[in-house]
């Protein structure tokens, strides 16, 4: 079955960086668009970045553009999110998620258990 395991979260100060990782198994990782989504009590689930199955296409919401970088290593079945210049409003539980459909960008589906990111002075 689909397994997605996130790691790398933690407590950092504003302006600092974190790199999240997601280990994927149980499906053809290189055939799927992959997403990073986050959840806060006030906003619910929010997608923040998407990467095409080959890694050549990336998409971001405006609030993280130019600060976050999504990447993947299909040889290792790994997804990453480099987060720079973190702000307090980035505090959330971060999930990696697989697209609902193989080979297309549609919507995020199965996701992992999440990793907590807290940005606070």
Question: What's the arrangement of secondary structure elements?
Answer:
Blueprint (H helix, E strand, L loop, with lengths): L2 E5 L2 E3 L5 E8 L8 E7 L3 E8 L6 E3 L7 E6 L4 E6 L8 E8 L8 E4 L3 E5 L2
Describe this structure in words.
- The chain is mostly beta strands and 121 residues long.
- Helices cover 0% and strands 52% of the residues.
- It contains no helices and eleven strands.
- It has strands spanning 3-7, 10-12, 18-25, 34-40, 44-51, 58-60, 68-73, 78-83, 92-99, 108-111, 115-119.
- Strands 2, 4, 5, 6, 9, 10 and 11 form a seven-stranded mixed β-sheet that branches. A four-stranded antiparallel β-sheet has the order 1-3-8-7, with no helix packed on it.
- A hairpin with a 4-residue loop joins β7 and β8.
- The radius of gyration is 13 Å and the shape is globular.
- The protein starts with a strand and ends with a strand.
- 33% of the residues are buried.
- The model has no long low-confidence stretch (mean pLDDT 96).
Secondary structure: helix percent: under 10%
The total strand number stands at 11
Compute the gyration radius: what is it?
13 Å
Helices and strands, in order, run as EEEEEEEEEEE
What percentage of amino acids are in beta strands? over 45%
Shape assignment: globular
Task: Describe what is shown at a glance.
With 121 residues, this protein is mainly beta. Helices cover 0% and strands 52% of the residues.
């Amino acid at each position: 079955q689909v397994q997605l395991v996130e790691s790398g979260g933690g407590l950092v100060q504003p302006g600092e960086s974190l790199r999240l990782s997601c280990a994927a198994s149980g499906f053809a990782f290189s055939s799927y668009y992959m997403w990073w989504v986050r959840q806060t009590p006030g906003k619910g689930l929010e997608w923040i970045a998407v990467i095409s199955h080959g890694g050549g296409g990336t998409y971001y919401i405006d609030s993280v553009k130019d600060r976050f970088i999504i990447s993947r290593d299909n040889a290792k079945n790994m997804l990453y999110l480099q987060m720079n210049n973190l702000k307090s409003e980035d505090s959330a539980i971060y999930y990696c998620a697989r697209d609902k459909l193989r080979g297309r960008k549609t919507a995020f589906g199965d996701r992992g258990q999440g990793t907590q990111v807290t940005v606070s002075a």
